[in-house]
Design brief:
Bacillus phage protein, four-stranded antiparallel β-sheet, two-stranded antiparallel ribbon, binds zinc ion
């Protein structure tokens, strides 16, 4: 997962895992442009937004998770990399402790903020975090 780069493939993964959308799997979904809208070829799937390349679309990921996850985004010098961290909070009480080692996630440093947000968000909703949903 840490090897994922900003791409339409990653956008689709975020749409599936974070937004719980059935994503278009047609041969040439790029001809549909960017979402959110349903595929024009009748597969019933959704065209993902550009979550991994657009900060506006990445911010929707932050907002989607903000019911339970606090987000910190920071730059790392000297390379000006980005690290995004999500911390699981329940009823105003952070539940990060030794018994919940996976409820505090972050990405390895990457070139852009949207990519950092997407990678950390996928960790947050991953199957190592049973408390989400
Ligand atoms: Zn389709």
């Amino acid at each position: 997962m840490t090897n994922l780069s900003a791409s339409r493939e990653l956008d689709a993964l975020v749409a599936e895992k974070v937004f719980r959308l059935e994503v278009c799997r047609c041969e040439q979904p790029s001809s549909c442009g960017f979402g959110p809208q349903q595929c024009a070829f009748g597969c019933g799937g959704w065209i993902p937004l550009a979550h991994s390349t657009s900060i506006a679309a990445a911010w929707l990921v932050v907002e989607k998770l903000s019911d339970k996850w606090e987000m910190n985004l920071r730059t790392i010098l000297p390379a000006r990399d980005y690290v995004c961290e999500f911390k699981l909070v329940v009823k105003n009480k952070c539940i990060v402790d030794a018994q919940h080692p996976f409820e505090h996630v972050w990405n390895n440093p990457v070139d852009t903020a949207p990519l950092a947000i997407c990678l950390a968000a996928l960790k947050a909703v991953g199957d190592k975090v049973p408390a989400h949903d």
